[in-house]
Amino acid sequence: MDQPEVVLGVGGGIAAYKACELLRRFTESGHAVRVVPTASALRFVGAATWAALSGAPVATEVWDDVDEVPHVRIGKRADLVVIAPATADVLARAAGGRADDLLTNVLLTARCPVVFAPAMHTEMWEHPATQENVATLRRRGAVVIEPAEGRLTGADTGKGRLPDPEAIFQICRRVLARGPGAVAPDLAGRHVVISAGGTREPLDPVRFLGNRSSGKQGYALARTAVARGARVTLVAANAALPDPAGADLVRVTTASELREAVLKAAADADAVVMAAAVADFRPAARAESKIKKVPGRDPDPIALVRNPDILAELSSAKTPGRVVVGFAAETDDVLANGRAKLAAKGCDLLVVNQVGEDRAFGAEENEAVLLAADGGETPVPHGPKEALADEIWDAVARLLRGASAGA
Fold first, then answer.
1. Which amino acids does the record list as binding CTP (predicted)?
2. 292 annotated among ligand-binding-site residues
């Protein structure tokens, strides 16, 4: 099988040095990479570095190797073009259809998926001109990853930081996995809300009632949704995982906090996927100090009360056209319990899987059955959690298209 051909465009920002790590991720995973830096990018990282890391000549000028027509050939042969960092200037020139250097020529000739990873100061990212350029690129089918928040140049902090190269690579890997026919992201223009992880209900200042959920399935849903062009809000409960690039992350602890965050984010959402393992019960009372052992006496029973049923609440208050997806973690009678839960909750889709020690929770792989409100059943065989995530988004995208067609 031929190596997938990736064009790595590098804009002229201080974050250009981080693109070296992204390049290494591609080459070590078997991709053939052609680096196309802008003239400004070469002020930060020289052509010799790019050539050494990629193992290929660096293309910098339209006028180099004119007989090979590089401004057309490079873009036409690519399986993916990723721009990292994508500066405000690169975004503006790409949105305007400019062709004043090799990189912008490549963007005009490419017929493959294109991913932009912006990096700039917060004020530049938030400027209406930049936001209009981003909206234009997304409308044309490009994946523009939301920048991260954190330390910028100098003493400044805010939104505009280049996401971690590993996170960018994972998004690009998912874009490539969808194949050459999937150029237009099918969730572009959609806002999706995902819950992940496991809630913790405090018993005293040091103890809590919790579960084994790691959040890996919810984070996989976030990564795949970003790769498919969605604006993603991830509500994460106690997940010790790297922040997924391009998602707005909201951290919570308890079921009550998760409910508040999800309902707030869902106000303008096209789809809500409740992948978090939400505690059904919480202690009726929280001890203000650590509960001590008393010699010769058994501990007092712990009284529990019900937590709000967030999935049922979302389903009952669902706005027209919004898709609500639930998860059912079962230990036995998996499908029977799943069908009963689907009927009781009233959601559009229910992802049913069998859980237990060393199964689903904390694992890198998963298997499930997607139950639909119309009676459909879609088995998803054992495989990476991102594969299950894509199956879920396939089903969500079909429902959203159907809702739009019937509007």
1. 280, 290, 308-311, 327, 341, 345
2. no
